[in-house]
Amino acid sequence: MQRSQIAAQLYTVRQHLKTPQDIAASLQKVREIGYEAVQVSGMGPIEEADLVAICADLGLTICATHEPSFTVLDDPQAVVDRLTKLNCRFTAYPYPRDIDFSDMTSVDTLVQKLDAAGKVLADAGQVLTYHNHAHELYRLPSGQTLLEYIYANTDPRHLQVELDLHWVQRGGGNPESWIRRYAGRQPLMHLKDFKVDPTGAPDFAEIGQGNLEWDRILPAATEAGVEWFIVEQDSTPGDPFASLAQSFAYLQAHCQ
């Protein structure tokens, strides 16, 4: 992992991204921390050209986005058009909204739509990935998890992997094993740590402040061909920019 591959998922600071002025100020803070790339998500309305200009002025690469679930499935050309405006190649299907994972007909419809949408992006030179949460690690009667089923039944040319390591752990998976399982198919990775409170309740944590084995995870991810190591923290104990800074400092110390 190189320092230039570390990105900030802007969803982490979503409460500070309501207006174009907020967005500009927040991106400057992210850049001052040391991040050289961002994943666009969770922000209020702003013209793509204005966002591109702000990032260019700050020396920030827009490495990826998250697009609305329904848009990805039902209007993938709109995703292509937005990514083109952002000079961005990667996006992710962020959440299986309105998908009933207990109903295989619903699951198969999702799989078919993901593959079809991914082909539209691939034909435009772009890449659709899938962002998991814990419930995709539900194990089917066949023995496969839902996440394995999704990847097994989509063309790797049309759907690639954005593993979220916290949610893999929360779902009972081993992050390193999952990374190695999809070597060569995962350009994006969400880095967030996993901790428990004194009662055993799970929570999010800054990188290096939880229980994930980063000394094993980071080399495995590099070997697997991950292009962007994207820091995300769904909730923080205080200032989210301080949490992004703490995670960046930890990762920077582990760069090659």
Describe the structure.
The chain is an alpha/beta fold. The chain has one domain: Divalent-metal-dependent TIM barrel enzymes (TIM Barrel). Helix content is 41%, strand content 17%. It has helices at residues 20-33, 48-58, 69-74, 76-85, 104-123, 146-152, 165-170, 175-181, 214-224, 240-252, and strands spanning 6-9, 37-40, 61-66, 90-93, 127-131, 160-164, 188-191, 193-196, 202-205, 228-231. The chain has an eight-stranded parallel β-barrel with strand order 1-2-3-4-5-6-7-10. A two-stranded antiparallel ribbon has the order 8-9. Strand 8 and strand 9 form a beta hairpin. Helix 1 packs parallel to helix 2 (48-58) and helix 4 packs across helix 5 (104-123). It is globular and about 50 Å long. The protein starts with 5 loop residues before the first strand and ends with a helix.
| Rg, nearest Å | 17 Å
Q: Count of helices?
A: 10
Count of distinct structural domains: 1
Oligomer: single chain
Kindly report the average pLDDT value. 97
Corresponding CATH architecture: Alpha-Beta Barrel
Q: How do the strands line up in the largest sheet?
A: 1-2-3-4-5-6-7-10
